[in-house]
Amino acid sequence: MNPDKDKGSAEDIAGRPLKVAELVDYQEGAVVSRTLVDKRTGTVTLFAFDEGQGLSEHTAPFDAVVNVIEGEAEIVICGEAMMVSGGEMVIMPAGEPHSLSAATPFKMMLTMIRS
Length: 115
What we know:
The protein is mainly beta.
């Protein structure tokens, strides 16, 4: 089941102004994602995390930029924890272990550049 099916595909939303926070909805006890751009050179994905949800520690082969849309989360990079909130961004370096945990319901846009 796709909770965002009525919000249009990536092609349907291209070329017009959008309210980013409205493109992905929270789901109780879950992490919801929606890919907006998926190209060989990179991806743009929106996430909505319910409070207490997160991503366990992992690494990625490419740099990734987290743009916080709303809410608060703890992001840990190489063992260093930081709190982030709406309007802030963090660059997660390639190859460095990182994790994320939502302190409140939390939305972010993740941009990964594959080069």
